[in-house]
Amino acid sequence: MPAVLLLLGMLALPDSPRWYASKGRFAETRRTLELSRSESEAAVEYASISVHAARDRNSKVSGAVHYLRDYPWMRRILWIGCGLAIVQQATGINTVNYYAPTILEQSGLGVSASLVATIAVGVTSVVMTIVGIILLGFVNRRTMLLTGFIGVASSQAALSLVFLLPSSTGRSYIILAAMMVFVAFVQCFIGTCVWLLLSEIFPMAIRGFAMGLAVFVLWTTNALISFVFPILNSVLGSTGTFGLFVLVNLISVYFVYRFVPETKGRSLEELEDRLGAGKPDASAAGSTAAVATH
């Protein structure tokens, strides 16, 4: 049923105004913009999109691979996008989604109690995703990500330590609480934010190719971690496994701080101009995340 609803919704969904502009269909560009913007806002954005589309159409370079070959800053943005895909999955969120009943059963809860507790994890995921969507309208992207990864590392550190406690019902519920906090930080601050950033940072010339590659990297990382988690858990135990995730997420904090540009409050065309000029603005410590043009 969800797939059918998605299909029906897509039938009524127009193509993006930037795609129309890239094909020279400027009337449809303007009409699509006016579906979600006031007339004045649509006029301003239409002018910017038209200029960029004309520039791209007149460029001697064609095809994403050629743009990536000729423009180092686009290659750098592509690697940052793939990095975002990796760190989103490296939180270990899907190990909880896939193995929550097993983890909770190992903590001492019975099979039935573990399945019921897993519902609580799922509800937390849905509620905090909604909260995260709301926060995206008010909080900078980098702030969201840094908060999320620090929270994830902290909750996983708590998980790894709690597994050292003697087995008891109390310990099982502390583990459940830590898992819910972990899921809350991922879904509220990281999950939706990474998908939004991926749609914002890639320039139009490579957006389709770059987005496809980033999504491929994301789900490949998901599959790898999902397959490896049971092996790690049997070799290192729960404490060692979640301790390893703590280390990985601390590396993710550094990656976001050092490389990820701020995108909030700017049009896609403005972002493209700034990134191409090596001016990601509010990224890490002034210019440390500068997207170099050479």
TrEMBL record:
Alphabetical keyword list: Membrane, Transmembrane, Transmembrane helix, Transport
Domain Major facilitator superfamily (MFS) profile residues, every copy: 1-264
GO CC field: plasma membrane
InterPro entries according to UniProt: MFS_dom, MFS_sugar_transport-like, MFS_trans_sf, Myo-inositol_Transporter, Sugar/inositol_transpt
A Pfam match: Sugar_tr
Membrane topology note: Multi-pass membrane protein
An annotated Gene Ontology molecular function: transmembrane transporter activity
Places the protein is found: Cell membrane
Membrane-traversing stretches: 115-138, 145-167, 173-197, 209-229, 235-257
Name listed for the protein in its UniProt record: Putative metabolite transport protein YfiG
Annotated organism of origin: Rhodococcus opacus (Nocardia opaca)
Lineage: Bacteria, Bacillati, Actinomycetota, Actinomycetes, Mycobacteriales
